[in-house]
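TODO from last week: model M20 family peptidase.
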Amino acid sequence: MSMMTELDELLAHLNQDRCERLLIDLVDIYSPSYAESAVVAHVCKALQDAALPYRLQPVVASPGAPGRANILVELGPQPAELMLVGHLDTVPYFSDEHDAPGSTLDGGVLHGLGSADMKSGCAAMIEATVALVDAGARLRRGLVLALVVGEEEYGDGAAKLLENAHAPLAIIGEPTGLRPSLEHYGYMELRLIAEGRRAHAARPDVGASAIHAMLSTILAIIEQVSDASPATRVSINPREVHGGNSLFVIADRCEAALDVHLAAGVDPTALREALARTLEASNADHPLCLVSSEELFFAPAYRLDLDDARMQTSRRAFLALQQAFTPRPFPSHSDGNRFFEAGIAPLILGPGDLGVAHTRDEHVHLSEVHRAAELYLSLIFHHCMTDD
């Protein structure tokens, strides 16, 4: 039997209705980080119905969030050659009283929190694995499907997984529009604190506004540190700014949270030095205030080699479905950074658009989800079932 015939037989076991039903159910279940138990239970039930063996891997719970766990499906000889990795948690829902969790289907487009990031990737990975088992496929090399929790915070689910799991390659289903991402941005989370001098609101000449100093510092950081040139790609997002109070006074304290994403070609040491110089200059401009910075989290960027044998096998999996293998960078943070640090090559690949993730208009095209399931199954075939 030819290789293409074998792959075609596997693809014939994909069930679009089954995949769509599961995805809609997943989006209908509200599952922000630390509150994933309901969605984990639903996925376990779906795996049981599909006669797919799985085990739960407990993840240390936070107060008020007991019983958190990753779901692991291990097939074929272990340790695995390939891991399919998805996260089941989402960001919290928006606070607007008019918003409500759940999905809506408009033609072939599914709307809802988590539809793109990344319950569509999870549903496609599950469908590919179920089709593999339905087909009675025999794996020469092992496969692990890992559905983890906590990605939208600091990746405690992935950290637990990587304590005793390893594979040469992981496919992580973050939304990339099904374009493979071999380059992954790094992420730095900063907290800025501005301290000023309190005074009557009508006498700014007597006081020193911490809010004024903070806003000036943030603008200076964006203008002087952020650089759009290809060699030093940095994006800065002031995620949160708060300070002052309801009293009629000059604010004496202000805090801000900044997200900094940096491409693989950016030197994080040089970036930190530029931030320090900018803070020093800002403090000189506001001598009665002091603005300080604290780095809360850092995950380094990475870039995979296109000529690596694992990437070339992945490329053949694309070409087998007449889909071009055209990599582009993934400009955000994900569990991929943690996998790379653990010595696993993380290829980011999933349905959906990162630009709509975490928004009220989050959505995914169902046709893309079905294409994702085909790609995941082709990747399993080429990495775990052939002589490639």
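Done. The mean pLDDT is 93.
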